[in-house]
Amino acid sequence: QVQLVESGGGLVPPGGSLRLSCVASGSISSTYVMGWYRQAPGTQRERVARIFNGGPTVYGDSVKGRFTISRDNAKNMVYLQMNSLKPEDTAVYYCNAFRNYLGVRDEYWGQGTQVTVSS
């Protein structure tokens, strides 16, 4: 059992910044691919960013150049630095941990944190 808890969401004006945090129980961050997803009302859940153990990252096209994902395995933490925020970034943001180990899929989700970009 793994628990993921997000924090850092809130209300921010266009062009502003927020830093989301996700803490994982145990020492899960060193073996799992960690990611951030988001979902706005009436839309499909969108993959925002992923970070693999060792540092490689992948970003969705809509956030490239504006968002940065990072992880601190010693603290079991994952972060999403969001800059130059736009109204279309408004969504519930979810932390995700994923592993496919020897063909067995293991995945966990946080409860989500609301990000609202509005003047």
Summarize the structure.
The protein has no helices and 11 strands. By secondary structure, it is mainly β.
Unreliably modeled segments: none
Q: What is the oligomeric state here?
A: single chain
Extended strand count: 11
Calculate the mean pLDDT score and round it. Answer: 94
The number of helices is 0
Distance between the termini: 40 Å
Main sheet overview: 7 strands, mixed
Shape descriptor: globular
How does this model look, in words?
With 119 residues, the protein is mainly β. It is 0% helix and 54% strand. It has no helices and 11 strands. The chain has strands at residues 4-7, 10-12, 18-24, 33-39, 46-51, 57-59, 67-72, 77-82, 91-101, 104-109, 113-117. Strands 2, 4, 5, 6, 9, 10 and 11 form a 7-stranded mixed β-sheet that branches. It has a 4-stranded antiparallel β-sheet with strand order 1-3-8-7, with no helix packed on it. A hairpin with a 4-residue loop joins strand 7 (67-72) and strand 8 (77-82). The termini are far apart. The mean pLDDT is 94.
Give a topology summary:
Layout: E1 4-7, E2 10-12, E3 18-24, E4 33-39, E5 46-51, E6 57-59, E7 67-72, E8 77-82, E9 91-101, E10 104-109, E11 113-117
Parallel strand pairs: 2-11
Antiparallel strand pairs: 1-3, 3-8, 4-5, 4-9, 5-6, 7-8, 9-10, 9-11
Please supply descriptive tags for the structure shown above:
single chain, 119 residues, mainly beta, 7-stranded mixed sheet, 4-stranded antiparallel sheet, 11 strands, globular
